[in-house]
Amino acid sequence: MSITRGGHGLSELGGVLLVLLALRWLIAHVPLRRVKEITVPGSNSHNSITADLGAVAEGASASLEDFDEVSRVRGKALLDRGVRTIDLRVTLRRSVVSGSETLSELISRVTDTGDQVAAVVGDPSVATRTHIAVESAKRDEPRTL
Q: Has this prediction a pTM greater than 0.70?
């Protein structure tokens, strides 16, 4: 009886390749770090003034939730590729899409909120990113059986 080892080198190489691809996928999907506080410009070594970016993001979210056209807002402060970022995710009601005047007005309000965030933070190195989406049809339409 003889035992052959032909073809095992290729399968081992394939296994190593799959492990490397899986590790790359996991690293790419690691959650972004959250940012809590920044030092406000104008602070010195004796007096340090800080701003809580998480609270700024929550305040911006709350101000956008006041609009009837907005279904949901999520705001968070994070570190994205080394840049402190206030990330706002605004979901609009589906009915807003039909009225182009309402949509353009709402986008203007969202932009104004981003400008207000920049003014409150006072640090040009802090970015504001806003994602605007429209809620899916499943939420607006009743289910039919």
A: no
Tokens of 116: 């207000």
| Gap between the Cα atoms of 42 and 139, Å rounded | 47
Per cent of the chain over pLDDT 90 is 2
Largest CA distance in the chain: 84
For residue 2, give both structure tokens: 């003889």
Spatial contact of 96 and 32, defined as CB atoms under 8 Å apart:
no
The C-alpha atoms of residue 49 and residue 43 are separated, in whole angstroms, by: 6
Query: Residue 39 and residue 42: Cα distance in Å, rounded?
Result: 9
What the block records as the tokens of 42 is 């104008």
Do residues 50 and 38 touch, judged by C-beta distance below 8 A?
yes
Inter-residue contact 50 to 41 (CB < 8 Å): no
List, in order, residues 6 or more apart from 138 with CB less than 8 Å away.
none
pLDDT > 50? residue 142? no
Could you give the CA distance from residue 78 to residue 82 in angstroms, rounded to a whole number?
A: 9
